[in-house]
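Problem 12. The chain below contains 606 residues. Write out its predicted structure in C-alpha cell notation.
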Amino acid sequence: MLKGRKPIFFIIAVLFVGLLAPAAGPVLAADQPITTQSLSAESDLLWDSDFGVFNNDMQGRIYIGKGIEGGAYTARGALRFNLDSNLPHPGRPIKYELQLYVNFKEGSDLANFYLDAYGSDNNDMDNTDRAVFPQKSSINYTRKSNNQIPNDGFVTFDVTPIVAEITSAVDRQATFILQGNESLTNARAFVSSKEYLTAAYHPKLIVTYAQSDPPTGSIAINNGALYTNSSSVKLNLTASDPDVEDVLQVRFSNDQLTWSKWEDVLSSKNWTLFNAEGIQTVYYQITDGKDIITLSDTITLDTVKPVVSGITNNGLYNSNRTISFNEGYAMLNGSPFTSGTVVSVEGTYTFIAVDAAGNSTTIEFQIDKTAPTVYGIINNGIYKADMTVTFNEGAATLNGSSFTSGATVSAEGSYKLIVTDTAGNVTTVNFSINKTAPTVTGVADGTSYNVDRTITFNEGTATMNGHQFTSGATVSAEGDYTLVVSNAAGNITTVNFTIDKTIPKVTGATDGESYNVDRTVTFNEGTATLNGSPFTSGATVSAEGSYKLIVTDAAGNVTTVNFSINKTAPTVTGVADGTSYNVDRTVTFNEGTATLNGSPFTSGAT
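Solution.
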C-alpha cells in the first residue's frame, strides 16, 4: 500500500457570465469585472516523420495527423508562448485558451479524426528548420473530435489545466504539442502557423483575467492525519474572502465529478470517502458568487490490519518463534517489539501490531517447551508389580492404544508410553512389568548334593552366601549355601542347598566284623536300613545273625556296614577239654582261628 501524503492542491477557476455556472449552485455575479488578451506564438514548428522538423510547410501552415502522399508519414505541431509578454497583467489570469485557425482537413479516415493539445516542459525550441522538436510531458491534455474541428475556421482549446501544470512563478514559457489520431492511416488537419500571410489567422493564446480577489480557505482531513482506517472522516474547514460583502458557499467531492449541494460555510463536516484502499482525495470548493476556488487534501485509507507471521492466534508452540509484521509498530506483553525478533522464553504472550492508520492485529499465543511429566514409572524401568501411571498434561498412548492418566498396568510385558501435550512436546517412557522370579537350574531349594553342582539362572544377578555369583559357575566345596538371584524387576529366587560329599559315620559296628555280644549301633546322619528294614540310630542288635546296615545321608552319601552277631563258641573235635591222649590227635574246629600253646593252629592239623 502506498504510504505518505501528497501536497494540497490549489486550483482557482474563475467563472463569468457566458462561461460556466455551477450546476444546482449559486448564480455567479453578472458584473464580474474581467478582461482578455491575446498572446502571439513566439515560435512554432512542424515535425514530419519522413522529412524532419520545419518551421512551416512553406505555405505558412502546420499539418497534423497521418498522411500517405509519398509514403505513410506522421506529423505533429508545436507552439511556444511567453505568458509575461503583455506585462503588466490587467488582472488575475483565470483561463487560458489556445486558438488555432484550421485551413482545411483531408484524408479518407476523417470520421475518426481528432486533435489533442498537450503541454511540454521543453521550452528551448526555436523557429528554424531542423530545430529540436519538443516532446509532450503533461498529464493534462484537451481533445477536439472531428465534428468539433471546422474545415475552414477557428478551433479553441481550453488549456488552463495544462498551463497550470507546465508553468510556474519562475517558468513563464508555455509550450504546446499538437497531435492527431495516430492510429489512423489517412487523416490530417492543416492549421495556420505564425508565418501565415494573414495575421488574424496566426496561433493565439487568449488569456482571461479577473479583477477581483477570490475567496480563500483550507481543508484538512481528520485534522491533517496521514492515515485513516475508516471511510467516515471529519473535514476541518476554513473559508474567507477579502471582499467582506461577498457571501460564501461551499461544496465537496471525492472525484470532482460528483459534488455535494452548495451550502453555507462550516468549520467542520462529516464526510464519507470512497470505499477503496489507498490515497483518497477530498475536493473542497468555495465560491463568492464570482470566483470558485478548489482546494483538496489527501489521506490514505487503510482498513487492512497488519499481517503477522510466525505465530497465529491461540497458537501453542514448543519451539522458539520468529515474529514478523509488515507495517506499523508492535508490543509484546506491553513492551516494544521489533519485527523479526525471536521469542524463546516459555510463557503466555499477547502480541499487538498497530499500523499508521490505527488498524491493529492482536494475537494471543503460548510457548511451552516442557515435555509432560509422567509419574509412577521411569524410562527403562522394570517393575514386578502392577503400576499406576499418571501424567500431568496432554494425551497418551500405551503400545499404540489410548491410555488414560491414572490407569493401572498389570499384565506382564514390555510397554511404550507416549504422552503428547497440546504444544506438541512429547515424553516417551519405555518400561516393562515382570512378576516372574528368576529360574534356577542345577540346584533346588532345601536339597543336599554329594557331587559338584553347576548352577545357572535365566536372568538377573546373583549372590552365593553373600558373594557375587555368575550363572554357569560350579560349586564343589562341601558346605551349606544360600543362592539369591534378583532380576531387574526385583523378583527374587532364593535357593538353600548343601553339598555334602562325606558318607555317614557308623559306630557300634564295623564292616566285616562279627560280634558275640549285643551291639548298639549309631550313625551321625541320614537314614538307615538293617537287612532292608528301617533302622534307627542308637538301636541295639542282639539276635545272632549276619547283618547289612546301609546308612544314607541327605546328600545321598552311603555307608554300608556288614557285620554279624555270634554268641555260640566254636566247636572243637578230636580232643576234649581235660582229656589225655596217647595217640596223635587230629583236631578240627568249626569256625574262627586257633592257637595251640600260643602258636597259630589250623583246623584239621594233627
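Discussion. Residues 34-210 form a domain with the Jelly Rolls fold (CATH 2.60.120). Students who got a different answer should revisit the alignment rule from Section 12.3.
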